[in-house]
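User: Sequence recovery, please. Input:
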């Protein structure tokens, strides 16, 4: 292994920890702009998750203080080294970025000595501390011509014929947040987690059963159906599990000598399994030995790729054929929709039930909020010019300023805007205000508000009033309300023939 890459990864990891420590007491989580030297990694495999890992490690530092420093630095060392050792141009870019970062003046020179990031507890190995200047390397040559030596120097050249994998950094599963597992953040609401509420899927019981046995468990499904979130909750259900989350392409041989936690408790998470197949990665023999050692390996893959590869003859195909599979379907069952509609701890759940349809609840949570900004720049100018419809649409598409624009349009008598304003107010828990604007929306002729009013009263524990509003929605031909009323009747032992008729009418109206 190139010792220059080792040293570069150590310096980069140390710099990340110093930056996170400096931001630890700040009012906001870190962003990529706080770590410009990492920008050169964004287009590498797994690079899109770097900012999420920074946020997770920032929370860990805030919660555990210096006790988390060593583990965070070790993880970043492995993360950087695995990306750099096979990509010399990227290593050169990171080296230059770190040099530039080192020369950047301290943005807050008034901070007294002894209170900054340098005081965090770190590795005791002297090699882990960044040198003032990074030695430049090319192949087996290290250039020390600009260095200063105070005593005798002995140079030793090590030849590594085949690299040895680094030690594995196992972590308690309850310290690994869903974001680090690859779960996508959803619409932000003050006081609520960045990830969406988890609604149990029908496949969860089978997944937990499969995770109770060593070997490869492969979760199949289309993009944005919730595979990573199901996997995270499945792992949390195991008794005292420990986790390892390797980077794409990482050497996994060290797993053979360092399984931790006992039989069936060591879990390796390989999101997007395809990125972990190939030479030096997960092969049939390695998987077989891990299974013998009691390691649970869990990964994800699109269903069509699985069915194509399981009959193949390449080593990666043979790994796929060895997997036990659990599929997470895009379409939600009636029971799953009932659980979504009845979830009361997170106010983002019921709007997802109303607006996503049978096939889109997980996708709604994952990417629906990203669409709100799409047309904003075209609408705000028109809204400023007095356009009520533009103000309504700007409020719908830009949640950060939604209340301002939607209120302007709602006060001008726009029923759709009043309804959207109610949705915005439900999120942070301003339920009474939301009720007022839902009522205003209905009074101005926006019939869809009946469904939202029914949902409010259902969550308030008033099923009779909820049923009144749901039946008004049914009278207006709202297929979503037909489905919602049918679900409510099923939960309250309502009239079964009526319930079946409502489901039939909803399906006939195009509700899926």
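Assistant: Recovered sequence (512 residues):
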């Amino acid at each position: 292994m190139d010792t220059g890459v080792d040293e570069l990864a150590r310096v980069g990891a140390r710099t990340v920890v110093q930056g996170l420590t400096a931001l630890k007491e700040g009012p906001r989580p870190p962003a990529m702009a706080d770590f410009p030297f990492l920008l050169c990694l964004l287009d590498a495999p797994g690079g899109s998750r770097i900012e999420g890992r920074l946020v997770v490690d920032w929370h860990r530092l805030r919660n555990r203080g210096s006790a988390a420093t060593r583990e965070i630095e070790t993880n970043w060392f492995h993360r950087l080294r695995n990306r750099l050792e096979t990509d010399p141009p990227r290593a050169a870019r990171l080296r230059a970025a770190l040099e530039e970062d080192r020369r950047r003046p301290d943005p807050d020179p008034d901070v007294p000595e002894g209170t900054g990031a340098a005081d965090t507890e770190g590795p005791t190995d002297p090699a882990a501390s960044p040198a003032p200047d990074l030695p430049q390397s090319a192949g087996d040559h290290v250039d020390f011509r600009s260095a200063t030596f105070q005593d005798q120097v002995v140079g030793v050249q090590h030849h590594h014929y085949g690299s040895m994998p680094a030690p594995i950094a196992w972590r308690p599963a309850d310290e690994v947040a869903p974001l680090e597992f690859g779960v996508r953040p959803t619409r932000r609401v003050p006081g609520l987690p960045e990830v969406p509420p988890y609604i149990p899927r029908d496949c969860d019981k089978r997944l937990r059963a499969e995770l109770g046995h060593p070997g490869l468990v492969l979760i199949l499904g289309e993009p944005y159906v919730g595979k990573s979130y199901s996997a995270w909750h499945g792992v949390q259900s195991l008794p005292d599990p420990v986790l390892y989350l390797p980077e794409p392409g990482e050497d996994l041989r060290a797993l053979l000598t360092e399984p931790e936690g006992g039989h069936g408790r060591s879990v390796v998470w390989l999101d997007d399994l395809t990125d972990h197949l190939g030479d030096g990665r997960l092969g049939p023999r390695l998987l077989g030995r891990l299974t013998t050692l009691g390691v649970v390996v869990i990964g994800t893959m699109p269903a069509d790729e699985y069915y194509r590869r399981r009959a193949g003859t390449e080593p990666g195909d043979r790994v796929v054929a060895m997997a036990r599979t659990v599929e997470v379907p895009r379409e939600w069952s009636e029971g799953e929709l009932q659980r979504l509609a009845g979830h009361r701890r997170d106010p983002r759940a019921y709007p997802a039930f109303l607006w996503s349809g049978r096939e889109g609840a997980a996708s709604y949570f994952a990417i629906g909020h990203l669409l709100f900004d799409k047309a904003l720049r075209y609408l705000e100018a028109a809204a400023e010019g007095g356009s009520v419809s533009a103000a309504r649409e700007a409020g719908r598409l830009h949640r950060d300023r939604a209340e301002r624009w939607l209120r302007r349009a709602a006060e001008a008598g726009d029923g759709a805007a009043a309804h959207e304003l109610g949705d915005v107010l439900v999120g942070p828990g301003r339920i009474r205000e939301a009720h007022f604007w839902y009522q205003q929306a209905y009074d101005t002729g926006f019939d869809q508000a009946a469904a939202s009013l029914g949902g409010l009263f259902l969550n308030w524990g008033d099923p009779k009033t909820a049923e009144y509003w749901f039946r008004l929605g049914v009278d207006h031909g709202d297929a979503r309300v037909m489905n919602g009323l049918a679900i409510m009747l099923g939960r309250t032992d309502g009239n079964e023939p009526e319930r079946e008729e409502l489901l039939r009418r909803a399906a006939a109206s195009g509700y899926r």
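The chain has 21 helices and eight strands.
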